[in-house]
């Protein structure tokens, strides 16, 4: 009897430790989320933007061609900031999606910025190259290559119209992308999305805005004029 009398006590102690760990994680998550909401609300206020912490489950329906918004399932935007930044219609937010099921269910969060373009655009994707892209090249699925080996090594570029990609990504644009903070960027016909596969700090949102402004400033004048003519 004495040999087993301590076992229930040990079990209760073990369960208490497990409960405490999960409770600590939940409390930490709650206060971290609250701290983030306050920081983003303050950043929005400083930039004359409207802030909402409500979840938007239809956000991806507004931008059906943006690849990053259509990953997995259970997608929603939250911590949404809207308004105008540097004269452009602006939306910044955090984004959630889930993959897998059951015990393999995983939840993913990242941040993004979307601005409206003053000219008609064409589809274009620029993102950091990864190991899967290198394997894809081995079997013939190449992205668009440019005259800069350094740029080709660092970035993956995809566009249905290669001429559009070459018009946008000229030598000065390549230098800008190589020396700027690294983001992924994609065009639809009217908007540009900039994102990373992680959550932005307020400083990262500022950097994303500066990145978009710098990118637009380097689009050649002849491209802008051609696109304005096309849109009329």
Question: Summarize this, please?
Answer:
It is built from 8 helices and 8 strands; from the N terminus they run ααβββββααβααββαα. The chain has 232 residues and is an alpha+beta fold. Strand 3 and strand 4 form a beta hairpin.
DSSP summary, beta strand count: 8
* Total helical segments: 8
What characterizes the major β-sheet? 8 strands, antiparallel
Bin the helical content: 40-55%
Note the overall shape.
globular
Domain count: the total is 1
Distance between the termini: 91 Å
The residue-averaged pLDDT reads: 88
Structural class based on helices, strands and sheet pairing: alpha+beta
Strand order in the largest sheet: 1-2-3-4-8-7-5-6
Low-confidence stretches: 24-28
Strand content: 25-35%
Our Rg estimate from Cα atoms comes to 23 Å
Q: What letter string, H or E per element, gives the SSE order?
A: HHEEEEEHHEHHEEHH
């Amino acid at each position: 009897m004495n040999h087993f009398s301590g076992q229930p006590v040990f079990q209760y102690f073990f369960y208490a430790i497990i409960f405490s760990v999960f409770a600590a994680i939940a409390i930490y998550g709650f206060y971290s989320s609250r701290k983030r909401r306050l920081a983003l609300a303050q950043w929005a206020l400083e930039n004359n933007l409207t802030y909402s912490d409500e979840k938007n489950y239809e956000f991806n329906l507004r931008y059906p061609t943006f690849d990053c918004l259509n990953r997995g399932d259970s997608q929603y935007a939250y911590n949404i900031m809207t308004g105008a930044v540097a004269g452009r219609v602006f939306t910044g937010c955090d984004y959630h999606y889930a993959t897998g099921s059951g015990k393999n269910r995983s939840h993913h969060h990242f941040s993004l910025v979307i601005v409206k373009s003053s000219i008609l655009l064409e589809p274009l994707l620029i993102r950091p190259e990864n190991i899967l892209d290198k394997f894809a090249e081995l079997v013939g699925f190449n992205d668009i290559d440019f005259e800069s080996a350094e740029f080709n090594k660092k970035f993956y570029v995809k566009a249905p119209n290669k001429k559009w990609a070459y018009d946008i990504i000229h030598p000065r644009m390549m230098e800008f992308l190589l020396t700027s903070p690294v983001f992924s960027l994609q065009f639809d016909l009217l908007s540009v999305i900039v994102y990373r596969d992680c959550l932005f700090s307020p400083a990262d949102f500022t950097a994303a805005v500066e990145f978009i402004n710098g990118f637009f400033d380097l689009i050649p004048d002849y491209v802008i004029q051609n696109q304005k003519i096309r849109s009329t």
